[in-house]
Design goal:
It is a single chain. The protein has helices at 2-15, 19-33, 79-87, 156-168, 184-190, 203-211, 235-242, 256-274, 281-286, 288-298, 307-311, 321-324, 327-345; strands at 69-72, 92-96, 172-177, 195-200, 277-280. By secondary structure, it is α/β, with parallel strands linked by helices. The protein has one domain (62-345): 3-Layer(aba) Sandwich (Rossmann fold). The protein has a five-stranded parallel β-sheet with strand order 2-3-1-4-5, with helices on both faces. Helix 8 (256-274) crosses helix 13. It starts with a helix and ends in a 9-residue tail after the last helix.
């Protein structure tokens, strides 16, 4: 043990000898240990007591705009469909996955591929044309580190990146994300007047959708440590980054559906807590006009002609989970997950808003 300790301290000492190493440590550990202590102390930034000292140099702050719409949902939740709905609206610029590693603003990296399961979508990047300056602020680490951010977290680069994107918009800016469900407290703090719309989908159907080919990893095929070849939507990345905050994610002896369910349920709870409106995917595709009207009413958007919006809806395939495993298999795993969440979060029998 002493040898291990000495090795760890030696590596740590070597890293901290250079500023770049210190910066890397801050970037990695900041979301866990670097919380801004003032947020819970009731301290706000008031004017300095001398008249010759300035106030904020940006009195018309982009992040305070009241027309911003943030769409949040997990991968394969129907978030692309929701983004495409807003893409049909006049006077709106609908940005797709701003944190995506394909860097939609860069013609050299984004490629031309479009997911064939994203129906009625021919490209993701039209709204990013002439926005190459976003590269100055973008960090790919946002897709794998700091996936949990509360109102006390600080990432000035992320804030400025999103502000520049908003400034590039023509009309109302709409930003669709798959990686902010555990960052919603941060967004509520730094974009205080934005409206957040949350979409969720039944976890069993969504699990099968993330696998794409359900034969890739069956109900008896192993644990999270065996999941790499079937992990199409970064489950292990999320587990590794979130487990300091939700320690039960460190469990390695169970089927990865449990890790998936834990993150799905926590994401749902965050959406219920911090979003202004939550949409059920199944209800959205069954009765789009009714479900969207509630969203548009919240945003004070009036739709005169629903034709364009209705044209992008196609009935999805359902019931794939029944081909994957039995109801008993799913319920056994889900019940164990709920028991852990009860212990960790406390239990409430209240039905949350929909």
């Amino acid at each position: 043990m002493n040898t291990i300790k000495k090795t760890v301290f030696k590596v740590f000492d070597k890293i901290t000898q250079h500023q770049s190493g210190v910066d890397s440590l801050v970037r990695c550990l900041g979301p866990i240990f670097g919380k801004r202590f003032l947020t819970s102390g009731g301290i706000e930034n008031t004017r300095a007591p001398y008249s010759d000292l300035p106030q904020s140099n940006d009195l018309n702050q982009t992040n305070s705009r009241s027309d911003i719409v943030l769409l949040t949902g997990r991968f394969r939740s129907g978030s692309t469909l929701l983004w495409n709905v807003f893409r049909q609206l006049d006077g709106t610029t609908s940005f797709y996955e701003p944190f995506n590693e394909r860097r939609w603003f860069d013609p050299q990296t984004r490629g031309a591929n479009v997911d064939g399961t994203h129906r009625q979508v021919n490209s993701y990047w039209e709204e990013y044309e002439d926005a190459e300056d976003l590269a100055e602020f973008y960090h790919e680490d946002w897709i794998r580190r700091g996936l949990y951010m509360d109102e006390g977290s600080w990432d000035g680069q992320m804030k400025r990146y999103l502000e520049r994107m908003i400034e590039h918009s023509s009309g109302r800016p709409v930003l669709q994300f798959n990686r902010i469900d555990f960052r919603l407290p941060w967004f509520r703090h730094y974009f205080p007047n934005a409206k957040i719309i949350h979409i969720y989908r039944h976890p069993r159907e969504q699990w099968c959708s993330t696998l794409q080919d359900i034969s890739l990893f069956g109900p008896e095929d192993g644990t999270i440590e065996d999941f790499s070849s079937a992990d199409k939507f970064y489950l292990r990345t999320w587990v590794n980054d979130l487990k300091p905050h939700f320690p039960f994610l460190a469990e390695t002896s169970v089927h990865p559906y449990r890790h998936y369910y834990w993150i799905w349920k926590l994401s749902y709870l965050f959406g219920q807590q911090y979003a202004h409106h939550s949409l059920c995917f199944e209800n959205l595709v069954a009765q789009p006009n009714q479900e969207l009207k509630a969203v548009f009413d919240l945003l004070n958007i009036e739709i005169q002609d629903w034709t364009k919006i209705e044209s992008i809806f196609e009935k999805p395939v359902t019931g794939r989970w029944q081909q994957y495993a039995s109801n008993e298999w799913f319920r056994a795993h889900e019940s164990e997950c709920e028991t852990v969440l009860d212990a960790f979060l406390g239990r409430s029998d209240a039905t949350l808003k929909s």
